[in-house]
Structures are given as C-alpha cells and as structure tokens.
Amino acid sequence: MTDVELLREYAGFSGTPIDMRVVLLSSSDRIEKLEAAMRRIADLTECWEHDLISQVNEIARKALERKDDPQADL
Fold this sequence. Notes:
The chain has helices spanning 3-12, 18-44, 52-64. By secondary structure, it is mostly helical. The chain has one domain (3-64).
C-alpha cells in the first residue's frame, strides 16, 4: 500500500476527527501532484532542450502551489 493510500485510508476511519481528515486528504492530493511533477521532470531530462531549465522551474512551481482542485492540471 502506498503512502497516499494509507493517508486516504486513515482519513476514512470513523474515529478520525474531521479537521484531521481534511489535512490527510489534502496531503495525499499534494503528494500525488508532486509525484506527477517528478515524472514530468524525469521525462524532460531525456531530451535536454535549451529551455529545459525554465520548463523544470515551471513544473516545480506549479507542483508546489496550493490548489483547491486536486485534479487541476500541473
């Protein structure tokens, strides 16, 4: 079971306080976004284009932004 799955499972327990559920679910969403950003960065490093640095910076910036929509495109 992945860390994201564990966070979501714990958030689903009936004894988990509501405010803690929000934190757990938000954290799991952010982990998924950061993982997606890391995959995109790994893909970019294979091509080594001249504007690679700006592309990597943009992906990292978007991944680290707090977004309300966990499904928002990076």
